[in-house]
Amino acid sequence: MGIPTVKREKQHYLINTLHSLLYEFSEEQKNDCVIIIFIAEVTSLHSFPREIQSGVLEVISPPASYYPDLSNLKQTFGDSEDRVRWRTKQNLDYSFLMLYAQPKGTLYLQLEDDIIAKPDYIQRIKNFAAEQSQEWMILEFSQLGFIGKLFKSEDLPLIVEFFLMFYKDKPIDWLIDHLLWVKVCNPEKDAIHCEKEKAKLRIRAKPSLFQHVGTYSSLAGKIQNLKDKDFGKNVLHKAHNNPPAKVDTSLRIYQKYTLEKVYKGKDYLWASAPVAGDYISFTFLNPLKVEKYFFRSGNMEHPGDKLFNTTVEVINVFNSNISLYGPSFIFYLGAFENGIAEGSINQSIGKIQAIRLSVNSDSPVWAILSEVSMLIKEI
């Protein structure tokens, strides 16, 4: 996957885009995918040290010598000098990124830095590609611009060669359409025949797997409210059949997004920024043997609203006189990492009376709890 990103004047979207792309990423998918970020400001990726170290994320930036002189470009299609320079550099950025990515895998997915993705986008892309019986050049997973375009890596050198021949002349989404015309359209036949032939190489998947969320373009001063109507609604929480429990929290809940709703799988919890000492507790109506736990913070629309420096603790039935709200919870199970806390519970602990999430430091952001799962041991 390739993501070109440049600094915007008013708002940055890259970190939220990466949170969305890595949301529910399985270990198998981490071993199968590489996200390559074409970026100048490397320091902004401190949120993903593990992904960078493991190779899931790569960060690249071309040398200044890669770019030709972009002044005095010919103005075409009524575009301003700034816009012509912006789109010309963008063509060169995409070309560099594609050539770098070409040997990394068999398929290349072109994305942008201001999107959100469906949680299962990787598997759905693989399935759709595997279903194609005819030769294709582009599989489209968004109807907008150059977002969600899948190419075979073996085709990238040809595509980039075409881009570099005409990078000064037209925007990149126009150039890819011209490339298809060159490959399959017969000048002796009409436009309808041409469109039919191009459609054989450019296949659209529905519903869309990526949605554009940015408002401020990388072109200074440009506002763009583009939305993909085929994307549909985001799934912002996930339901599980949890055992009966009394739930409680010290967090300051926002509107209707309560702890009860996320525990019952009806909605997600949303609260203003947690502070040290805040807690979320689940007290079972009857002590239970719990095999596994899973908590997810953040969701697709607000992937950065996660729980940070938050631990998972339990109190078992032998220590039920311990206060739920004091510092003396008896067993430490784990902590949230990149928005998720999960694990198995040692059965020697015995039956569990309560599970608590404890916030250990002030958070700079609001918090969402979008998934709660307690797997009970069958007797």
UniProtKB/TrEMBL annotation:
Keyword Phosphoprotein belongs to the record: no
Coiled-coil region list: none
Residue ranges constituting the MGAT4 A/B/C C-terminal domain according to the UniProt record: 245-371
GO molecular function: acetylglucosaminyltransferase activity
UniProt key word Transferase: yes
Keywords on record: Glycosyltransferase, Transferase
Domain MGAT4 conserved region: 1-231
Pathway involvement of the protein, from the record: Protein modification; protein glycosylation
InterPro entries for the chain: Glyco_transf_54 (IPR006759), MGAT4 (IPR057279), MGAT4_A/B/C_C (IPR056576)
GO cellular component, one term: endoplasmic reticulum-Golgi intermediate compartment
GO biological process: protein N-linked glycosylation
One Pfam family cited in the UniProt record for this chain: MGAT4_cons
Superkingdom to which the source organism belongs: Eukaryota
UniProt name for this protein: MGAT4 family member D
Gene (name only): MGAT4D
